[in-house]
Amino acid sequence: MNFRVEINVMTKKEILDPQGKAVKLGLTNVGINAIKDVRIGKHIVLDLEADNEEDAKQKAEISCKKLLANLIMEDYHYTISTL
User: For residues 34 and 32, what is the distance between their CA atoms, to the nearest angstrom?
Assistant: First the structure.
């Protein structure tokens, strides 16, 4: 079966996000002052083959833990759908 895994990786709340701070400042500079905080992350889409949804979940977990997320500084979550 074919699955799509959509993964969001974000820096943990307790980690400073200089890129997010720069975007917040830029938004303030263009007159958008209602923004309280900005966090910048990654959105990754994997199309993969797996025997079933549990197998797809296992592949997604391995991908996140071993390559896509730095578990010391980042959290991740994902959704799986069939193609």
Answer: 6
Which tokens belong to 34? 């209602």
Q: How many structural domains are present in the chain? A: 1
Task: Take residue 13 and report the two structure tokens written for it.
Answer: 């709340």
At 27, phi and psi to the nearest 5? -65, -40
Task: State the sign of the Cα–Cα–Cα–Cα dihedral 52, 76, 69, 6.
Answer: positive
Q: How far apart are CA 50 and CA 17, in angstroms?
A: 35
| pLDDT single digits (tens) 48-68 | 999 999 999 999 999 999 999
Q: pTM above the 0.85 mark?
A: yes
For residue 33, the domain's CATH number is 3.30.1280.10
Extract the tokens encoding 22. 């720069």
- Amino acid found at 31: G
Nearest-angstrom CA–CA distance, 81 and 35: 32
